[in-house]
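Can anyone check this?
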Amino acid sequence: MESYPVIEIRCMTDFNKYDLNTIYRLKIAKISQLPIALVNLLELDCSNNSLTRLPNNLPSTLQILNCSNNVLTKLPNN
């Protein structure tokens, strides 16, 4: 998995810079929602934010999730 680059996203418009089908490793900051088209995502790092919940649209391909150092009060159903 380390052979894929980590894409860093700081706002929703940053997603416009990438083909969403080619994002495999993602680091987000200050984003509470992911585009539904992230179908190939293997790793998501949303640590060190102020998230109170995780998005409900986490892809089924996700293998690694780091959401440490947030203020989570609810987890997604999936």
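Reply from J.R.: I decoded it. The CA atoms of residues 13 and 31 lie 11 Å apart.
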